[in-house]
Amino acid sequence: MARMAGAVGVLLVFSCGCVPDAPRVDARTDQIIGGIPSPDDPAVVAFAAATDAGFRPFCTGTLIAPRTVLTAGHCLFAAGRDVDYAVLFGQHSRTPTRVVPVLEQRDGALDIGVLRLAEAVTDVAFLPMNERPMTADLLGEPIRHAGFGLNEFEPPGSRRQVTTPLDSITSSHISTSTAERVTCHGDSGGPGLMRLPGNTGEQIVGVVSFGDGACHQDGWDVRVDVVVESVYRIMSTWETTCRDDTGCVPGCVPVDQDCACVSDGVCSVDCVDPTQDTDCPFDCRRNSICATEACALPDVDCVAEGSHCVLPVQCRARLCGTDPQRGETYCTSPCVTDSDCLAPLECGEGVCRFPQRPVRQMLETCEATRDFCAEGGVCAGPAGGFSRCVPRCVTTSDCPSGSRCEASAASQRFCRPRGVPFVAPTLPFAGEIIGTAERGGCSASAGPLAMCLVVMLLRRTSRRAPLVRRGARAAVARRLLAGDGHSLAATPGGETRRRCAGCRR
C-alpha cells in the first residue's frame, strides 16, 4: 500500500519512549503500510484531540476494560494539557459510531499510557493483556497489528490491520521486520495481537511504540507482559479489573475468577481453584483424595476405574482391589450387570473386574493369549512346539526335580519337565500315510489331518502287520493324539476308538 505524505490535521511531532536495547527511530504517527481494512476490531479505537472542526485522531488505543484504554506513553497530552481528548469508536474516525471523553491520562512503565474514560463501555468486548513471559519459541509466529491513519485507498483515519511474523524479542520490546508491511505514523498505542499457545483468542502482547522513519520495514512494540503490573496498578484506582480483586468483570479472557468462583449454587468449570467456590465439593481440590461427588473439572486425585491404585481413597467408589488373574490392584466399583462397568471391565461376583480367562492346570496344554495358568504358572513352550502350563524360572535351581530351565519361543524362562512332550512325534511312515490320506480326500489342516493319520495307521495295522506290531502302532497313535487332549481306548471287541475329552458325541 502506498503511503501518503501529509500528516493528519493537528498531528504533532513528539518523541518516543526509547530504551537502550532498541534503535532510536521515529514514533508511529501515520498509517499501517501494506495492510487491509480491519472492520472486526471494535475494541481498537482512535485517540483524538478536540479542534474547532471536531475531534482529530493522532494515535491508536485499545479498550482493555469498560473504563480503560491502553495506548502509547508518547501519545499522552500530545496536543497540550488544555485540550479536550476523546476516544472514537468505529471503523472510520471521521464518522465515529461513538465518542467517549477521556477524563484522565496516566503514564505507565516504558512507553505505555493509560486512559480513563468518562463512562463505561459495556457493549464492546475488550481485549485481554498477555501476562505470560514471551520466549524465543514465539519467534516466527504471526502477530497482527491494527491502527488508524491515512492512505490512498481508504478515507482518512480508517482502521487497518497487517499480519507479519514476529522477528525479535528483547527484554522490553518485540519487533517485526517485513518490508512494506509495517506499522507507521498514527499507529502508536495500537495493539500487537497474538494467539498464544493454550489460548483460543487473541491477546495484546505489544503496544506500538516506534520504527524506522520511512515506515519501510522495522516496527517496535513495548512488551505488554513486562508492563502489565504497572497498568493494573494504575487502572485499579477507577476500574474493577479481571484479576482476583473481589469485583466481577464480565467478558474477561480468561474468565475473571471473581465471577467464576462466586457462590451461586453452581460449581463452575471456570473456577480454577475449587477451594474458592463454596459450591464445589470439598474433595474437588487437590488433596490426594478422590471426590465422590461430581466436580466441575475432573478431580486430579481420582484414579480411573481399571487403573492401578494403592489406597481406596484414590477411587471414586472407594474400592481398590484385584482379581485372581491380575497381579496389581486397580480401582473398581459395585455392579449388577456388565453395563454398570467401564470397558474393558465386566461384572463378576458383584464388582467390575477384568475379563477372566479359562484356567489351565499345571502341565495342561494352553494358549498364552487365551488361557490362564493356575498356581502362578506360565503358558510356555519351545520354538516349533506347543505350550503347557509350567513353573516360571530364572535358573534350573528354581525348577522342580527332573526339570530344567530354558527359554521359550517367546523368550520367557520356564521349567521343562523331563518326559513331558512339547513337540508332536515324527512317524517314519508318515509320508506314506499322508500320501494315502491325500488320495483319500483328507483335509491338510492340523486337526482333521491328525485323525486321518490315525485312521490310516489303524487300517495298516489291521491289514499288513501281525498282532504284536499292530499293538505297537496303536500305542504310537495314542501318543500322537495325547498332545491335543484326545486319547484312544480299546473296546472289548479289539477296536481302537478315539476318546474325546469334553466331546458331545
Which key features would you list for this structure?
single chain, 505 residues, alpha+beta, nine-stranded antiparallel sheet, six-stranded antiparallel barrel, disordered N terminus
What is the count of DSSP helices, taking H or I runs of 4+ residues? 5
Shape: elongated
Strand content: 25-35%
The stretches of 5 or more residues where confidence is low (pLDDT under 50) are 1-31, 430-447, 461-468, 480-505
Tell me the distance between the termini: 92 Å
State the share of residues found in helices, binned by percent: 10-25%
Main sheet attributes: strand count, strand direction, barrel closure: 9 strands, antiparallel
Instruction: Tell how many strands the DSSP assignment holds.
Output: 28
In angstroms, what is the radius of gyration?
A: 42 Å
Q: What structural class do you assign from the helix and strand content?
A: alpha+beta
Structure write-up:
- This protein has 505 residues and is of the alpha+beta class.
- 36% of the residues are buried.
- The protein contains five helices and 28 strands.
- Helix 3 packs across helix 4 (446-464) and helix 4 (446-464) runs antiparallel to helix 5.
- The longest helix is centred in the last third of the chain and has 19 residues, at 446-464.
- Strands 1, 2, 9, 10, 11, 12, 13, 14 and 15 form a nine-stranded antiparallel sheet that branches. A six-stranded antiparallel barrel has the order 3-4-5-8-7-6.
- Among the domains are: 257-289, no CATH class; 312-353, no CATH class; 359-417, no CATH class; 430-500, no CATH class.
- It has helices at 224-235, 257-260, 430-439, 446-464, 467-482; strands at residues 26-27, 36-37, 44-51, 54-65, 68-72, 85-89, 98-107, 112-117, 142-149, 158-165, 168-169, 173-177, 191-194, 203-211, 218-223, 319-321, 330-332, 346-348, 351-353, 359-360, 365-366, 372-373, 378-380, 387-390, 403-407, 413-417, 486-490, 496-500.
- A hairpin with a 2-residue loop joins strand 18 (346-348) and strand 19 (351-353).
